Amino acid sequence: MQPYTVKLPGREFQSEALGLRDALTESLNRNSAFPFHRLFDFMSLSASNRELEMQMRARGDIRFADGAFENVSDDPIDTVVRDVDSQGNNIELYVDTELRGRANRTGAVLGLVFESANALAIVDFLPPALGFGNRFLAAELTFSDSKVDFLLREEDEPTHQLVISLDLRLSRNDVETEVWTAAAAKGLTPSFSMVATEALVDGPCCGGRPRPRPRRQCVNLHVKVLIEPSLPIAEMVEATRQLFADRGLPVSLLTTEQLNLPQFLDLPVGTCILGQTTPEQRQLFGHRTSVGSTDIAVYFVRSTIPAFAGCAAHPPGQPSLVVARNADIWTLPHEIGHVLGLTHVNDNRRLMTGNGTYNVVDPPPDLVQAEINTMLDSPYSIPC
């Protein structure tokens, strides 16, 4: 599904936005820090927003390192963005204490891709005919010569995407701002127009109720290496992190341990059915140094008997899986999916294909919302 896009006139911010892009790029290239509040300087916060400005300054710096970025603070941002359109609608905004992601520069385009589901926007003014909900997670912020795009994905249905696009070529005096949507095929006629505003006002959320936080669970991994696989373990873990992060399920690698256990290099796994394990699996999975009761232990072996790329069958209370030396890049997240309660499907576009992850088409593979909910509800995904 194509995103629903709202375009805002932003010609008055053009020089500031392009200067911000270039300054961010310089910090990215130098692996240096960048003041968090400067992300919003080009929006010209008015004198009535000193409290919001103080919140942003309290966030400290965005730190870049080898293409990754993070902003960690003791202070969340909890605010209302008021009068975002001509009808006086608002967006409620919450930014948690940690933001992480990756930055990339292609030509004149700079993108910041958020890998943690820690920034929530509540948008109540979208046309009902879209069929969208109102809770959106920040996905990507992109700067180009002509626009600044902020991509958000609906919390419970990531295929529902909203783009707030600041068009640096349009002024407030231009013709009515364009609003278009993939839902046009439904006969939807946009009923409102958007205007750029300086009225970013800090204020209470949600009618005085506590701020609803994005639903997020974490998965902790411990790697136990009997033999190095054909693909680097770091690449497998990073692919897993990127695949799960957008689904509200950050993955952390807590420890890595080398095991000298030659008797388990070629591991009998029987039928590899969840709940059924061989004596050899039970013995191997007993090696759980530093592994918590809700953490997942990942054992890298030479092969399984019979031959599988991986196997997630494990004893009760010992969440574990094995990955064989010939595994592909999607074997690890596939087996983690099994540990978190997922079953096979007959669809090679999906992570949980039962036809072997080496048959995945159009990567990265998909996870549907029901699967995401199952993983979030697993006893082995824990509150972050």
Map the helices and strands:
Elements: E1 4-9, H1 14-30, E2 33-35, H2 50-57, E3 61-65, E4 68-72, E5 77-81, E6 91-95, E7 98-106, E8 109-114, E9 119-123, E10 135-143, E11 147-154, E12 161-167, E13 179-180, E14 200-201, E15 217-225, H3 233-245, E16 251-258, E17 266-268, H4 279-285, E18 296-300, E19 303-305, E20 310-311, E21 320-323, H5 331-339, H6 369-377, E22 382-383
Parallel strand pairs: 1-12, 15-16, 15-18, 17-19, 18-21
Antiparallel strand pairs: 1-13, 2-3, 3-4, 4-7, 5-6, 5-14, 6-9, 7-8, 8-10, 9-10, 10-11, 11-12, 15-22, 20-21
Q: What does this 3D model show about the protein?
A:
By secondary structure, the chain is α+β, with helices and mostly antiparallel strands. The chain folds into 2 domains: 4-208, no CATH class; 217-383, Collagenase (Catalytic Domain) (3-Layer(aba) Sandwich), CATH 3.40.390. The chain has 6 helices and 22 strands. It has helices at 14-30, 50-57, 233-245, 279-285, 331-339, 369-377; strands spanning 4-9, 33-35, 61-65, 68-72, 77-81, 91-95, 98-106, 109-114, 119-123, 135-143, 147-154, 161-167, 179-180, 200-201, 217-225, 251-258, 266-268, 296-300, 303-305, 310-311, 320-323, 382-383. Strands 1, 2, 3, 4, 5, 6, 7, 8, 9, 10, 11, 12, 13 and 14 form a 14-stranded mixed sheet that branches. Strands 15, 16, 18, 20, 21 and 22 form a 6-stranded mixed sheet that branches.
Distance between the termini: 30 Å
What's the total helix number? 6
Mean of pLDDT: 81
CA radius of gyration: 23 Å
The computed structural class is alpha+beta
Helix content: 10-25%
* Biggest sheet architecture: 14 strands, mixed
Number of spatially distinct domains? 2
Shape: elongated
Low-pLDDT ranges: 44-49, 175-214
